[in-house]
């Protein structure tokens, strides 16, 4: 009898230990808020993103086995049992609800409103992430998109399957065609690392870092990836001037009481965390892959982009001081960079005319014809995040870096 009791007690504690261990790893790697206290390794997070349910189902099953043994034999003692069960609920329940409900995306279900309707919720000076196609423009105010992280609908952008991705830790919204090699992706927000959003393609289980747009299993430099869509920032009042018939994404409160409560909790956590991220010099989450780059103040907003393997970035202050368009060469291509004070927007365009541009407006109309926006621009990203992923970048480039070694890269 005593041997049987000892056996069940052993089963109870081993099952409970296994469940607690898996639950803690799940909470640590995908719980998000834990990264304010714990430095999570990227490889561990990627493993859990790929294997989320393969890991937590056995963990929950082990916890359930411990509960069955407890109720059948009394193993573990009543008070301690309920305390540990409560811990398991937090480790598994909080993490799953936070990720899959609190951060529920709107890749295909986003609702867009007229500028007039949006004025009830958006301030004229609020910065918006904007994408446009054939005159069909959509603005995404930061506060409205920072929780769903993904916004798009079946209608698409001017008939194109284009969505907005957003990372609040990077302060970056970027447009993508959510397809790779013709296959539509089923994206879900799972985590962040390096202060940048990580999504999962639920068709393959593969993680996708927002800044790169490729599945983690594919070669980052030459592998297939989502098509980037020209994305730019402007004030809400600038958007109204430029696109009076444009659409504005609003993430209005849910009518479902449970969702509404979860959204309140998540938004509150975001307000606290992001206030710290924007105010403090160092990142609120210490999960960068490289030492901090102090060539600029870490929380400077930059407009970074690349042409091939050539990376550069610009600050608004630098371009506002110039007043006239900047003609520059990036990756062997002629590029025009200019800040438009009327629409309060920094723009980057390809210039294939063969001649320098002396005048250009917000819409890309120049003295050398209509120019196309550069699709790789990451508009308004925090400098410390851009520098972490693209340390080879220069700052506020002027001229052609290959033609003169003495003054073409200006920090």
Strand content: 25-35%
Number of strands: 23
**Biggest sheet descriptor:** 5 strands, mixed
N/C terminus separation: 78 Å
Describe the strand arrangement of the main beta sheet, using strand numbers.
Answer: 1-14-3-2-13
Helix vs. strand class: alpha+beta
* Tally of distinct domains: 3
Morphology = elongated
The helix content is: 25-40%
**Overall pLDDT, averaged?**
92
What Rg do the Cα atoms give?
24 Å
Give the uncertain stretches in residue-range form.
Answer: 403-411
- How many distinct helices? 10
Provide a quick synopsis of the model.
By secondary structure, the protein is α+β, with helices and mostly antiparallel strands.
Explain this structure:
- By secondary structure, the chain is α+β, with helices and mostly antiparallel strands.
- It has three domains: 2-102; 112-185 and 224-249, no CATH class; 301-395, no CATH class.
- The chain contains ten helices and 23 strands.
- The strands form seven sheets. The protein has a five-stranded mixed sheet. Strands 4-5-6-12 form a four-stranded antiparallel sheet, with no helix packed on it. A four-stranded mixed sheet has the order 22-15-16-23.
- A hairpin with a 2-residue loop joins strand 7 (179-180) and strand 8 (183-184).
- Helix 1 (2-30) packs antiparallel against helix 3 (52-73), helix 3 (52-73) packs antiparallel against helix 4 (78-102) and helix 4 packs across helix 8 (257-279).
- The protein is elongated, with a radius of gyration of 24 Å.
- Residues 403-411 have low confidence and may be disordered.
């Amino acid at each position: 009898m005593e041997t049987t009791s000892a056996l069940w007690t052993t089963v109870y504690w081993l099952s409970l230990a296994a469940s607690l261990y898996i639950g803690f790893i799940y909470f640590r790697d995908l719980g998000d808020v834990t990264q304010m206290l714990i430095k999570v390794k990227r490889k561990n997070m990627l493993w859990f993103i790929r294997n989320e349910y393969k890991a937590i189902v056995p963990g929950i099953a082990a916890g359930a086995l411990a509960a069955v043994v407890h109720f059948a034999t009394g193993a573990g003692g009543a008070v301690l049992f309920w305390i540990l069960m409560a811990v398991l609920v937090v480790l598994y329940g909080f993490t799953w609800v936070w990720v899959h409900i609190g951060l529920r995306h709107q890749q295909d279900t986003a609702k867009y409103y007229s500028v007039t309707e949006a004025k009830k919720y958006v301030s004229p000076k609020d910065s918006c992430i904007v994408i446009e196609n054939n005159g069909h423009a959509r603005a995404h105010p930061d506060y409205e998109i920072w929780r769903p992280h993904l916004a798009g609908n079946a209608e698409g952008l001017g008939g194109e399957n284009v969505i907005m991705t957003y990372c609040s830790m990077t302060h970056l919204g970027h447009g993508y065609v959510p397809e790779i090699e013709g296959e539509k992706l089923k994206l879900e927000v799972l985590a962040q690392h390096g202060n940048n959003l990580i999504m999962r393609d639920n068709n393959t289980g593969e993680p996708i870092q927002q800044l790169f747009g490729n599945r983690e299993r594919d070669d980052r430099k030459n592998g297939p990836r989502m098509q980037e869509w020209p994305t730019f920032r402007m004030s809400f009042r600038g958007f109204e001037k430029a696109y009076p018939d444009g659409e504005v994404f609003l993430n209005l409160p849910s009518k479902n009481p449970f969702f509404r409560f979860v959204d309140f909790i998540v938004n509150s956590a975001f307000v606290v965390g992001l206030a710290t991220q924007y105010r403090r010099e160092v990142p609120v989450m210490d999960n960068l892959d490289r030492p901090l780059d102090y060539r600029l103040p870490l929380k400077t907003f930059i407009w970074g982009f690349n042409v091939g393997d050539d990376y550069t970035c610009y600050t608004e202050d630098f371009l506002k001081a110039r007043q006239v368009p900047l003609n520059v060469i990036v990756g062997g291509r002629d590029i025009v960079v200019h800040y438009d004070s009327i629409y309060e927007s920094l723009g980057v365009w390809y210039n294939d005319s063969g001649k320098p541009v002396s005048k250009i407006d917000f819409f890309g109309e120049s003295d050398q014809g209509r120019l196309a926006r550069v699709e790789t621009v990451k508009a308004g990203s925090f400098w410390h995040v851009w520098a972490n992923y693209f340390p080879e970048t220069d700052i506020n480039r002027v001229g052609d870096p290959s033609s003169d070694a003495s003054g073409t890269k200006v920090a």
